[in-house]
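Good morning C.,

I know you're traveling, so I'll keep this short. The sequence:
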Amino acid sequence: MEPSHKDAETAAAAAAAAAGDPRAASSSSGVVVQVREKKGPLRAAIPYMPFPVAVICLFLNTFVPGLGTFVSAFAVLCGARTDLPDRHVCCVFWLNIAAALIQTLTAIVMVGWIMSIFWGMDMVILASYKEQGIPQQL
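The tokens, ready to paste straight into the viewer:
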């Protein structure tokens, strides 16, 4: 049984790639895939805070689920920017309070505690984007 034409092309391309030929790209090269994260209203309500405040909120969320999120709600009232520019400040404040309550009430079954830690990590990530001046894709 002889190898098919497709197998011969694949073998030739692999040999050329192993030899370092830049033209030996696979047939799927040149395809650009862009992934955008779709944020829900609770996730988009996390404020962009100064880095030290975000680290304190992460620390608080780690040991008392929901407390750091509760503190971050007041950062919104102090003028911290969020990914919900079309919503009023009071609405974003109450979304953060709701997230804090969800974290606190579900901490008994460990879900809220884990959510609270991830929420704090998101705060630190958003603060590092702000510190480095990296534009956040919406």
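Safe travels,
E.
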